[in-house]
Design goal:
two-stranded antiparallel sheet, 3 helices
């Protein structure tokens, strides 16, 4: 239940930040990328995983529990790859 609340709080904070924001950040030739957008996407993903896990456990539905398990393992793999790419030795660029 607390995961769902955390997801809803991220969605609420992201929605509030979108309404308060004046300009958009564009990178990669016009693709809209914003930290606020990433906050909204993270909130939606966290809420969906928590919701599916809660309903799957409540109804004892193995399909929903498998979905939650696969999503969490995929999320952990993505986070691990990001961690490995950030902390690789030899990729340190000294400040100038």
């Amino acid at each position: 239940m607390s995961i769902q609340v955390f997801g809803v709080l991220l969605i609420a904070a992201g929605s509030w930040a979108v309404t308060q924001k004046d300009s958009n950040v564009t990178l990669l030739g016009g693709i809209f990328i914003s930290p606020v957008l990433l906050l909204l996407i993270a909130g939606c993903i966290i809420f969906a995983i928590g919701f599916f896990g809660c309903i799957g456990a409540l109804r004892e539905n193995t399909c929903l529990l498998v979905i939650v398990s696969e999503n969490l393992s995929c999320l952990y793999r993505v986070l691990y790859c990001c961690y490995r790419n950030i902390n690789l030795p030899g990729h340190y660029v000294p400040p100038q």
